[in-house]
Amino acid sequence: MRDSFAIAIAVLVTTALIGGVAGTAAGAQSTISTDGPTAGAQPAVGAAATGAGAAQTDGACGFPYNATDATGETITLEERPDRITTISPSAAQTLWEIGAQDRVVGVSQFAFYLDGAEERANVSASFGASVERVVDTEPDLVLAPNSSAADVEPLREQGLTVYHFPAATSIGDIAEKTETIGRLVGACEAASETNAEMYDAVEAAEERTSGVDRPTALYPLGGGYVAANNTFIDAIMTAGGTDNAAAEYEAYPQLSDEVILETDPELIIVTDSEAAILDQEPYASTTAGAEDSYVVMNVNHLNQPAPRSVIESTTTLSNAVVELRSDGSESTDGAEGGSSDGDGSDGGDSSGDGSGDGDALDGSTTGDSDGTDGGDGESAGDTGAESPGFGAVVAALALLATGLLARGE
What we know:
It is globular, with a radius of gyration of 20 Å. The two termini are 33 Å apart. Strand 4, helix 1 and strand 5 form a beta-alpha-beta unit. Helix 4 (171-185) packs antiparallel against helix 5 and helix 5 packs parallel to helix 10 (307-327). The strands form 5 sheets. A 5-stranded parallel sheet has the order 1-14-13-9-12. Strands 6-5-4-7-8 form a 5-stranded parallel sheet, sandwiched between helices. Strands 2-3 form a two-stranded antiparallel ribbon. The chain is built from 11 helices and 16 strands. It is an alpha/beta fold and 409 residues long.
């Protein structure tokens, strides 16, 4: 058991992830065209609450509303959608965060970690979403991650209104996605407030680690795949006070044992409290393996491109970095469990959305990118599908076959 040596083992939080309400009208992402004066920059950190409820739709967040999604399709919402189905956990997490969960009628099985989500219809199929199950929910709006591109047209052929998201590769992308979801469901102010909370957490994490040496870190997804540059996970790692040991690579590449040894991370990110991967080569022969230096993260947060994921993951990781450096300024051996405020959990069998939720491996199995396999091979999340064309889909499929992924974005 490595529990006593973990840098940070946070407790898996299973309570509701419900965000606050307030803020200014959210702006639309670059792929969205809006009818009204809702387009704008990311919300300022600490935006003041206005007291408006998530269900409110004022002039700046009203209907009818037209929006163009990642496929170039313009959808029209004549009125606020009261029946929403998500086929990725990251979109579901965001709806819970902005207080719109009561209108959600269908979710991916990988969103069941959200409080009350198991009471919604399960729209997952063995791979991706079940068109029949989604149709049965009679949704006014379907939110689909970038990893679920193959599901979009079949759903539209059934006469459903489907909004398809682009991949999220940065915290800014996650903020835009949150704003977009808020605008689509008429909860602009709640989305703005949620983003303000997220940026506050990022700022706090960066300040927390500003005075310490940044360790190199690696997040193994299983099978030699890792989270590299140009991914939202890399953005979380950077904000959390680490330098990605795989930063010279893009997206979610599969690295050879020799290359992983060359990256020689000082810290391994895992989603399994046992950190079993540190007993395996090549990880056992890295500096992190030799010094038993790792941080346990909550798989449902780390692998899903959504605001609560950023808040909890950057908090957990930055606390771990501070603990690592304070306990091991000369050596990182046996750093004992600092407290992390994050939600990182052992995640072991927890799953994201089955894919890479289109974000990373969100969800489907590739990724709302929700679906990456976490360090010990059990995480799932939004991490795979996020970056097109680099082999994330292959990684997601391989991980899906072993039941390791969850859909995220």
